[in-house]
Amino acid sequence: MLAVPQLATLATYSGAALLLILTPGPDMALFLSRTIGVGRAAGFAAMAGVMVGLLVHTLLATLGLSALVAASPTAFGLLRIVGAAYLLWLAWGAWRNGSGFDPRGPAGDAAPGVARAFATGVAMNVANPKIVLFFLTFLPQFVDPASPEAAAEIAFLGVWYVVLSVPICSIIILGAARVADTITASPRIRRALDRTTAAVFALFAVKLALSRA
């Protein structure tokens, strides 16, 4: 069940959300690396995975499960370790293999690379406790806790965040696809991109590992 907040509240929330969406982070690094390394379809698959992950967090926040995780030092710590380890694994993969692994099977089918990009997007978001905290601290600022529709409004704001994210992320992916041939044609540029992607994942892994609820 979704409930739309007042228009003034929604406008303020949308402006704040857009700034957050445009802030570089591991999601953006994933979109760029998959688009340039595998193809536009993989970039959109990664985006779809991230959006599914955000919807999962929206559901958990609406049901109150996210609050339980954040309130439990053990559960939050475990999720933090898992999320950091996964980001480090992505960083190692980008450093060692780059984003240019060949996802195609014998018949030239890119489906495995697309499926992997989607799964990576889902896992990277679901296993990130910082997103749990985001939904617990950011969304409630735009909801009246005394309202009988507070949970429904939080659900709407979570879905609205995804709606705002899709066109922006799509523009980023399409832009990356346009320059993909130029980048992949230069081993030096490709290597620099892979190293940068690895550094971004590693940086956010360390930041996540050192974070506290």
UniProtKB/TrEMBL annotation:
Transmembrane segments: 12-32, 44-69, 75-95, 116-139, 159-180
Gene Ontology cellular-component annotations: plasma membrane
Annotated keywords: Cell membrane, Membrane, Transmembrane, Transmembrane helix
Membrane topology reported for the UniProt record: Multi-pass membrane protein
Domain of life: Bacteria
Localization per record: Cell membrane
Pfam families: LysE (PF01810)
GO MF annotation terms: amino acid transmembrane transporter activity
Annotated protein name in UniProt: LysE family translocator
